[in-house]
Amino acid sequence: MPLLQAGPDRIAAAARRVMMRCDELAGVTAAPGSIERVYLSPEHARVNRLAAAWMREAGLRSWQDAAGNQLGRIERTVDPDPAAPALMIGSHLDTVIDAGRFDGILGVLMALEVVRLLRDPGSETASVPLPFAIEVVAFSDEEGTRFGKALLGSSALAGTWDADWWELTDQHGVTLRQAFREFGLDPGRVGEAGRRPEQLVGYLEAHIEQGPELDRAGSPLAVVSSIASARRFQVTVEGEARHAGGTPYDMRHDALLGASEAALAVERICAAEHHIVGTVGQFEAFPGAVNVIPGEAVFSLDLRGELDETRDRVWDRLGRELDAIMGRRGLRWRAVEVHNAPAVACAPLLRDVVAEGIAATVGLDAPETRSVSHAVPTIFSRAGHDAMAVGAITDVGMLFLRNPDGVSHHPDEAVSAADVALGIRALTEAVLQLAHAARP
Length: 440
Ligand code: HGY
Ligand code: MN
Ligand code: MN
What we know:
By secondary structure, this protein is α+β, with helices and mostly antiparallel strands. The chain has helices spanning 8-26, 42-57, 105-119, 152-157, 176-183, 213-217, 255-271, 308-329, 348-362, 386-390, 417-438; strands at residues 61-64, 70-74, 86-92, 133-139, 200-208, 221-227, 229-238, 242-243, 276-279, 283-286, 292-293, 296-305, 332-341, 344-345, 378-381, 396-401. It has 2 domains: 8-228 and 343-438, Aminopeptidase; 229-341, Alpha-Beta Plaits (2-Layer Sandwich), CATH 3.30.70.360. The structure holds (2S)-amino(hydroxy)ethanoic acid (HGY) and manganese (II) ion (2 copies). One manganese (II) ion binds at residues 92, 103-104, 142, 207, 385.
């Protein structure tokens, strides 16, 4: 029995507001004509101010934490207590370069609409007692675009910040420590962003699917089962720079060709595995002169898998393959790991309430004998999310929305207002189902 009492017009208006705000946030960019908003940038500060204003307008108390995450909170209606544990709902506001306007942003804005619906004095929903506080979170760096290490904002909130990260540098050589200070944050106080498990009831994140499964299945929504484990490396190949004209092939140690063979080996080896993907997204050759054989090549490797073990086995296999390639070409190679996030399973209770929310929204009647979770589309997320970091301290659950053609990390990223309306209804219903299950 759905707990959310809100007419279709109310939900449609909420979806329109979300779509309008996605467009507004898309205009906050370091690169006019495209979307680029990285950690600790002026654009980050601007969207935090916007998010804070929207949080306050929705009735939340709002603050920026010691890692630059923007948060808002409403207290529980049952025995209000500012120290009461909170259900956290949100996603991230940072982007990749030349990004789409929904990755992360949609989840933050949908969370705000959930709170508006829960507090809507006109609706029956406001009468459902809330046994936990609700916090909306806009994480500040999920992508890792600026410093290479992803999930910095959510890692700070999870209390898993690593002091080694302070020396990470961006493309201009600015360290994370310097960028913190320039943004107005104190590196020595980043620990204050950390939350303890007992402060949280759980974490829910709505996100566009960054793949084509829902579109192919004709389903608007899905519950996420688990989130892929990820490792990121920077691989350097060293050969010998020589004259492009005078050097015969039997004397060449061309780093670019070795790295190119390695990139093709990544595709060949990962494609032969189940649920493993490897991507070379950055590739540079040095000295980068048209008439010099590249003496060095550097490329990124983004390696993901459903299980840590299979992902690590493939990494070992790739290492042996690179040894063979570089040995044959008289090259040397090394890899520096810049990111490592273990696979995270979504919690059964949160999977169930998200499934209940979807079922109530799309009208799925689960057979009595089986939990509704079995009747609702369920997806393993190959994309990484802040939920991976937050999973270190609390249960996590995710709701996916259909993304036509599955395009993401690209300006053509899309979601329909109709699916956003369904997503808002499902997410709100999930929160109400959780409140109902948690009632004293
Ligand atoms: O890379 C990812 O999977 C996420 O979009 N940051
Ligand atoms: Mn994202
Ligand atoms: Mn992303």
